[in-house]
Structures are given as C-alpha cells and as structure tokens.
C-alpha cells in the first residue's frame, strides 16, 4: 500500500505542477468549442495539490504504524 500511496502522491504533484505551469505560461486550453479560462487551472492546482499533500501525509502515517 505504501508504494501505491507514493506513486499516487507523485502523480498528483506532477499534475499540480502542470496546472501551475499553465497558469504561469498562460497556455490556452480548448475543449470542443469552449475556451477554458486560466482561473480554472488555479482551482485545479489547489484541489490536486491538496490531494497530493494528503497522499504524502498518509504515506508518512503508514511508516509510523507498525505492520500487522
């Protein structure tokens, strides 16, 4: 379970970096005919970043818990 948590946390951290990079570089995103505003990436970065932190904290808790 520890490896899954680590991989999940790293993947979510990578997604957070991608969202923040989109905000900084002002990259346009278009889905069909809809232009996605940059502020959506700010919200996505906060949500995904929170999930990444949650995963890393869960992994740290797993390290402290004795194996059964």
Describe this structure in words.
The chain is mostly helical and 68 residues long. The protein is 75% helix and 9% strand. The chain is built from 2 helices and 2 strands; from the N terminus they run αββα. The protein has helices at 2-25, 38-64; strands spanning 29-31, 34-36. Strands 1-2 form a two-stranded antiparallel sheet. A hairpin with a 2-residue loop joins β1 and β2 (34-36). α1 packs antiparallel against α2. The longest helix has 27 residues, at 38-64. It is elongated. The two termini are 13 Å apart. The model has no long low-confidence stretch (mean pLDDT 92).
Taking the sheet with the most strands, its summary is: 2 strands, antiparallel
Strand content: 5-15%
Structural class: mainly alpha
Query: C-alpha Rg, in Å?
Result: 16 Å
Helix content: over 70%
The largest sheet has its strands arranged as 1-2
Report the average pLDDT across residues: 92
Q: Give the N-to-C terminal Cα separation.
A: 13 Å
Globally, the shape reads: elongated
Topology:
Layout: H1 2-25, E1 29-31, E2 34-36, H2 38-64
Antiparallel strand pairs: 1-2
Helix pairs in contact: 1-2
Can I get a quick summary?
The chain is mainly alpha-helical and 68 residues long. Helix content is 75%, strand content 9%. The protein has 2 helices and 2 strands, in the order H-E-E-H.
Task: Provide tags for this entry.
2 helices, two-stranded antiparallel ribbon, mainly alpha, 2 strands, 68 residues
């Amino acid at each position: 379970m520890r490896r899954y948590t680590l991989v999940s946390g790293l993947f979510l951290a990578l997604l957070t970096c991608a969202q923040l990079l989109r905000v900084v570089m002002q990259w346009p995103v278009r889905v069909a005919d809809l232009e996605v505003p940059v502020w959506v990436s700010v919200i996505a970065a906060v949500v995904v970043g929170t999930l990444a932190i949650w995963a890393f904290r869960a992994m740290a808790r797993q390290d402290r818990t004795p194996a059964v």
